[in-house]
Amino acid sequence: MKKTRCSWVNLKNELYVSYHDEEWGVPVFDDTKLFEFLVLEGAQAGLSWETILKRREGYRKAFANWNIHTIAQFDEEKIQELLTNPEIIRNKLKVRSAVKNAQACIKIQKEFGNFSKYIWRFVSNKQVTNQQNGIEQLPVLTKISQEISTDLRKRGFSFVGPTIIYAFMQAVGMINDHTIDCFRYNEV
Question: Has this prediction a pTM greater than 0.85?
């Protein structure tokens, strides 16, 4: 029997299908994974998610398997090296943002114990489940994503606008935005 998925999934791309079926919308509480998605969502700005998925393994290699403390120490020489790496998006602002965000993330970890506690408090530590019939009903930002975006910016983060943050919230399961006809809706 054929599974019904969210209509945004490119069924011809196995990487995309796998991402939708196994990761998107599943609650994430691990700081490393949360940071990965924060950087990848920022890198995606202006591009398709498929473009990022294709480079995901390259990002893992280039960004020290998402070790936040290592990334925070990247110097100008390392940044210049990253800007020549064809396995990632070689946008100067986005690469520098990853380093800056790692530094800011460490400060949050010190203040809150971990990044997960900080970020999940915006949704009272539980997933928000929407009930959308189609992707045209999904918002691109919400009051909560605007609030998170503002707070992250105050704390020194970049590439964390409210639309990027809403996509991040969807990806890490802070919000279940699978459409109600999708087989994953009730599973996550």
Answer: yes
